[in-house]
């Protein structure tokens, strides 16, 4: 129960990069806990799906507007636009097979690490709330 409350509180804070002093304090002091929790979520998702996701950048042709300089009869430069093809980066997700026994061991290890980090994260949250009480 406590883990879920801590995760919920920390999950909300991840969305706020420029939050209140209290939120900044909690975010700064629970970074490792959140990292391990996110890794555990990813590994558990891999196990549930039976595969992992990876990403790669691929370059695809895209038609767009290109800027170029033209000169008038007096030689003065002017900016003009015309259609052109150019390569644009695109992120592509693809499936990667996993070894379920390796992923299971990884999940167990991450659960143990998260359990060890929980008291420190909860203490940090309490200390940040005490040091930076929210004005309501």
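^ Assign residues to that structure.
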């Amino acid at each position: 129960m406590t883990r879920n409350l801590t995760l919920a509180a920390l999950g909300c804070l991840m969305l706020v990069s420029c939050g209140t002093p209290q939120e900044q304090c909690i975010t700064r002091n629970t970074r490792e806990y959140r990292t391990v929790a996110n890794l555990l979520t990813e590994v558990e998702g891999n196990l549930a799906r039976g595969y992992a996701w990876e990403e790669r950048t691929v370059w695809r042709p895209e038609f767009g507007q290109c800027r170029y300089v033209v000169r008038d009869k007096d030689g003065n430069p002017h900016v003009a636009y015309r259609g052109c093809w150019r390569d644009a980066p695109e992120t592509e997700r693809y499936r990667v097979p996993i070894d379920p026994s390796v992923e299971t061991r990884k999940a167990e290890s991450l659960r143990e690490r998260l359990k060890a980090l929980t008291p420190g994260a909860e203490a940090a949250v309490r200390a940040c709330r005490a040091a930076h009480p929210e004005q309501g």
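Residues 100-131 form the longest helix (32 residues).
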